[in-house]
Amino acid sequence: MSLQFDQAKPMDVVAMGRATIDIYANETGPLEEAVTFTKYVGGSPANTAVAMSNMGLKVGYIGKVSDDQFGRYIRQYLEKKGIDTSHIAIDKSGARSGITIGEIKSPTECNCLVYRQNVADLNISCSEIDEEYISKFKAVLISGTSLSYSPAREAVFLVMEFARRNGVRIVFDPDYREGTWNSDAEAAIYYMLAAEKADMVVATRDEYDKMESLLMQGKSDDKLTVKNLLSRNVKLVSIKHGKMGSTIYTADGKVYAGKPYPAKVVKTFGAGDAYAGTFMFGLISGKTIDESLKYASAASAITIGGHSCSDSTPTKCEVEAFITAYDRVKND
Amino acid sequence: MSLQFDQAKPMDVVAMGRATIDIYANETGPLEEAVTFTKYVGGSPANTAVAMSNMGLKVGYIGKVSDDQFGRYIRQYLEKKGIDTSHIAIDKSGARSGITIGEIKSPTECNCLVYRQNVADLNISCSEIDEEYISKFKAVLISGTSLSYSPAREAVFLVMEFARRNGVRIVFDPDYREGTWNSDAEAAIYYMLAAEKADMVVATRDEYDKMESLLMQGKSDDKLTVKNLLSRNVKLVSIKHGKMGSTIYTADGKVYAGKPYPAKVVKTFGAGDAYAGTFMFGLISGKTIDESLKYASAASAITIGGHSCSDSTPTKCEVEAFITAYDRVKND
Amino acid sequence: MSLQFDQAKPMDVVAMGRATIDIYANETGPLEEAVTFTKYVGGSPANTAVAMSNMGLKVGYIGKVSDDQFGRYIRQYLEKKGIDTSHIAIDKSGARSGITIGEIKSPTECNCLVYRQNVADLNISCSEIDEEYISKFKAVLISGTSLSYSPAREAVFLVMEFARRNGVRIVFDPDYREGTWNSDAEAAIYYMLAAEKADMVVATRDEYDKMESLLMQGKSDDKLTVKNLLSRNVKLVSIKHGKMGSTIYTADGKVYAGKPYPAKVVKTFGAGDAYAGTFMFGLISGKTIDESLKYASAASAITIGGHSCSDSTPTKCEVEAFITAYDRVKND
Amino acid sequence: MSLQFDQAKPMDVVAMGRATIDIYANETGPLEEAVTFTKYVGGSPANTAVAMSNMGLKVGYIGKVSDDQFGRYIRQYLEKKGIDTSHIAIDKSGARSGITIGEIKSPTECNCLVYRQNVADLNISCSEIDEEYISKFKAVLISGTSLSYSPAREAVFLVMEFARRNGVRIVFDPDYREGTWNSDAEAAIYYMLAAEKADMVVATRDEYDKMESLLMQGKSDDKLTVKNLLSRNVKLVSIKHGKMGSTIYTADGKVYAGKPYPAKVVKTFGAGDAYAGTFMFGLISGKTIDESLKYASAASAITIGGHSCSDSTPTKCEVEAFITAYDRVKND
To answer: Each residue of B162-215: pLDDT tens digit?
Structure first.
């Protein structure tokens, strides 16, 4: 395989980016009519970190949370999930933690209202980035949302520099969310600048379209996307196709198809994070890409059957039981 | 009494300011541990408008809401409560409606996390203010939160000008919320500029302290507060003392004490809005100040026994039943 | 006369507002072709302060300048002109002093390019306002440009409050400059809020139109302007008509016409400031309004015959010599 | 030599970045005391473009100027200098062109006050970048000042992408100016992101220190600087040492020393721009690096003997005459 991890490093993956609050409607239907809600920790890199920790990886976090009840809740939750929170800073400027209000109109039509104005996670700055900490991990996972504003944007590029010169693999997930960017041009430019420094890029087709909106406008062509990224030294490109599964392309020219497991869907949120985290687990623990994809698909299927993103992420045991059960049924 | 309303005007009170979303924890205790929440319409002027409409006044609203599920919910709710929503504009800039997360640590210790960055209600501008509409009301109720940012701030001063030249009485409630102002100096300056244009000011002692922080720093003296405001042509000053009741001072030198009714407290939020709205009902419907205070105290007592601000506001029938029941018990 | 000054106060007028840099083309013609320039101190309140000091008044200044060569030059120049600069603060944020590039296309067609983004003078804040200092002056002159941004805007309203409670007369000059305001609505609202706190308002017809753009849109009617301001307790209203002279309206219903002296015009900039400063000198030194207008017109005529605003302002001796000379010629 | 240009391309160099106004004191001494000034076109990439055009290269410009007299003057001046101005956009937002006030305290102590708040040149955006135009040039010269703010920053990265995929060489000059950046971290991050996409980097030691402030803090070591940049695929690194000359390092490990010519110094501004432009002329017209350095040093020496940056840049004829004259004297 094209992507190698330095197994001498004591820790597995450090995630960087927003760790925020999900407030999801309990009632299925239009948000206008929803009456009660449940609160979870959310944000793509946080969900992915939980997924990786659930699978048994040694996970750390680089982030910044609000100096209030929500910020404390986020740290406590991640800690409870076994994630090292020593590098989650506390914002003293009065900024709040971001909120995502989740509307579950139907199991397949989920929307969210995102509150991301002046949020604590975007206030992380270069002076808070610790090279020694990063150097202990086999890989760093970067969420592209942190690229949307200064000073978080610069902190991301600094993390990438520190990772590169310490032999830490870089995984980049654009994590695009409507309404978080000043302009499409900014998203396209900073996505590409970050992607070309990554060893692995994980994104949906829509996210690649955002990334290519200035350089390959309107192409939306998987082959071009892969060719462009591999030519910039990315080693592994993952294109997620939602319920159609995903495809992996590697620098040695191989292609791997990940097929989804059938699932009882409660909401579609969080499937991609469970997928990415579990796939990372596979790669780092030495499984083949095909095996890793199988694990990732199973974790996805389990997650969308629960109400939350972070809390519905399965453990390794649950994932393996799911695969066993499903394969038995299929083979009968 | 010093404050007269033009009874020839067809409508009663038009409220101006934030109409936002309250998301209150269902569990009593620290917010970190709260799991489920309930959604309501909130925001001081919205709550007060609902209180007035519940009491039977003809109420209108000047405001701006987000172009999303929350904005639509706010308009629908106010409409359902009998409030004229024809002058609630819809923000097309992508701004969200403000959110207030309510923590009910104990019945007497309630806190909130306020999300008010780039919110739709502060985007209302002078060009959206309709003099003819305002001229139809006996009074306009101004929430001081709208003074915290442009263009809403200028819209408030324009509403006041239109009110004055059309014989519409002005009621000003500073509605101070931590974290909504750039600086204490801004709060002090714009509160005073607005208060001196009002016929009636309703505020807590803490809010008067904010208003006086530049001109009477550290005094916190009710007599000075009243003297200052009456000298600037305010006709009626109400100082709210929380569970200790409130005191009314009028331009003719009279003082009226409003005593609270005993209440089973669920949360303290919203008591002041129910009080202000019901007191307005009393004044406008020709009751004496003492009677109006009695109604206001009863409405307060009922509201703090419910979970929300807007939804727990009583009807005229409930208020009168409460007073009758309480007075009977007391006289027994 | 309707406007009285407390002659017991030891100082005459304290001006508040921008003291900036004028860089005027030496060559008459389009600015594109201008090669050399001359530097002066400028800004309406600075020019007016110089005019008043030249006439012999005891003048002070409330302002803020950049911590650079231009800021130091401004303080040195005002000091040299006999103005007390003890209350000119120095901005430590890195902001620059504003610049006005002057184009003298022809003696009667003068334009300027204004650099007023993040300028030091708008950074003056309430904490820098000294009530005791203000209380020593008979009058304070407020430039409306300081109302265009926070924190200067709030500082202006605080100065007005301090002036009122210490018996200091307030003179308000809107000092409108294209490109300094976020919106016409802001200019209209804050101009009116400031004007109604003033004892005297001095402005051009165009500036009154800006002030009235929300409340008397498109009227442009001197009588309405005067009626509106006098009804808000302004005691003296001056409407400047450029080379047509000016008219003064007082609270006791009197009207005074100021006729311009014929002048050899080099540039039209600064005429209004010389006029306002010299008129103030007249009022404070006990001259009649008619006499004061005569002095003001003479100072105007002299100023527009020079290249700069501040530096071309005449002394009392020059003004009186001009009047004597002119009257002799006329009477011959 | 390591750096090759595609000689089939019809045009030589397109410069991108600020084209602004220099207003330089005519009197030598402290700026406070300067009375008269002369106006020029300035801004590092504009000066460099003029230097290249003067030497006979076919030069274009990508930029944005104000919609006022200064903006028109800039375009007219560049056009007059033979530069293609078809891709200089006109800002319609009301932004001004930047101004640099030059203080010539003594021939060797020159300072400037920079006005760069909301300037037109930083408003250039991705939608104004024309790939076909760029593709016609052998090289593009990027000024790092454009990296200081959006949307110009993104436009720079887009220009670099377009250059790379069209075989256009990229020359990067950080062009650091005090007070133009939000933070040192931003300067460091975007300088490095741009430098590593360049074929050639031209900067002073101080500018490399800014670039390395996060990754090689406090090192200030030429060898490390060169090693770092060459490892990122830069082909030619130039380190300017002011009056000590400059050193060139190429990817093939060679080092070239450029020695300064003795000069009668009027002001030090602009020496670097003349140097860079003339050096580019040398490389593109096929001269050796040593010859190119000789030309560059001569152009520098001539420029600092004049009052302006742009206007004092010599023609090819003047440069060659200077070299001939100097070499004859030396050899006598």
So the answer is: 999 999 999 999 999 888 899 999 999 999 999 999 999 999 999 999 999 999
Q: Is the pLDDT of residue B1 over 60?
A: no
Which of A154, A185, A193 lies at the smallest CB-CB distance from D151?
A185
The SS3 assignment for A307 reads: coil
* Cis peptide bond upstream of A107, omega within 30: no
Rounded to 10 deg, the angle between the A152-164 and D184-195 helix axes is 50
Q: Which residue has the tokens 């152009």?
A: D299
Put simply, the answer to whether D150 touches A186 (Cβ < 8 Å) is yes
- Geometric angle at alpha carbon C87, from C82 and C90, rounded to 5°: 110
**In chain A, which residues have pLDDT < 70?**
1-2, 332
Nearest alpha carbon to residue D15 among D66, D78, D67, D108: D78
- Candidates A178, A77, A138, A190; CA nearest to B34 is A77
For A122, residues 6+ apart whose C-beta sits below 8 A from its C-beta are A18, A95, A116, A146, A148, A149, A151, A152
Q: Can you give the pTM of this predicted structure?
A: 0.95
Q: Which of C128, C154, C184 to mutate to test the interface with B (most CBs of B within 10 A)?
A: C154
CA B250 to CA D115: how far, in whole Å?
Answer: 55
Instruction: Give residues with Cβ within 8 angstroms of D322, minimum separation 6.
Output: D261, D298, D301, D302, D314
Quote the distance between the C-alpha of residue C56 and its chain's center: 17
Rounded to an integer, what distance in angstroms lies between the CA atom of residue B298 and that of residue C109? Answer: 70
Q: Which residue of B has its CA nearest to C161?
A: B215
Given a contact as 3+ CB pairs under 8 Å, which chains touch A?
B, D
**ipTM of the prediction greater than 0.90, yes or no:** yes
- C180/chain D closest Cα distance in angstroms: 11
C186 chain-B contacts, CB cut-off 8 A: 150-151, 154
Nearest to D214 among A126, A186, A188 (CB): A126
Q: Do B39 and A39 touch (CB under 8 A)?
A: no
Task: Kindly state the average pLDDT of the residues B65-88.
Answer: 98
Residue ranges and CATH numbers for the domains of chain C are: 11-19+43-94+120-331 (3.40.1190.20)
d(CA A31, CA A110): 10
Q: How far is C169 from chain D (nearest CA, A)?
A: 35
Contacts of D132 (CB under 8 A, 6+ apart): none
Query: CB count, 10 Å around CB of C12?
Result: 22
Amino acid at B77: Y
Nearest to D195 by CA among A145, C210, A193: A193
The mean per-residue pLDDT over the stretch C133-147 comes to: 98
Residue pair C279/C238 in contact (Cβ under 8 Å)? The answer is yes
Digitized pLDDT (tens) for each residue of chain D, 332 residues in all: 568 999 999 999 999 999 999 999 999 999 999 999 999 999 999 999 999 999 999 999 999 999 999 999 999 999 999 999 999 999 999 999 999 999 999 988 999 999 999 999 999 999 999 999 999 999 999 999 999 999 999 999 999 999 999 999 999 999 998 888 999 999 999 999 999 999 999 999 999 999 999 999 889 999 999 999 999 999 999 999 877 789 999 999 999 999 888 888 888 888 899 999 999 999 999 999 999 999 999 999 999 888 888 888 999 999 999 999 988 887 76
Q: What is the pLDDT of residues D130-170, one digit of tens each?
A: 999 999 999 999 999 999 999 999 999 999 999 999 999 99
Instruction: Give DSSP secondary structure letters for B224-238.
Output: HHHHHHHHTT--EEE
ω before A151 within 30° of 0 (cis)? yes
Distance separating alpha carbons of residues A143 and C321, to the nearest angstrom: 77
Task: Indicate the residue of A151, A186, A214 with minimum beta-carbon distance to D185.
Answer: A151
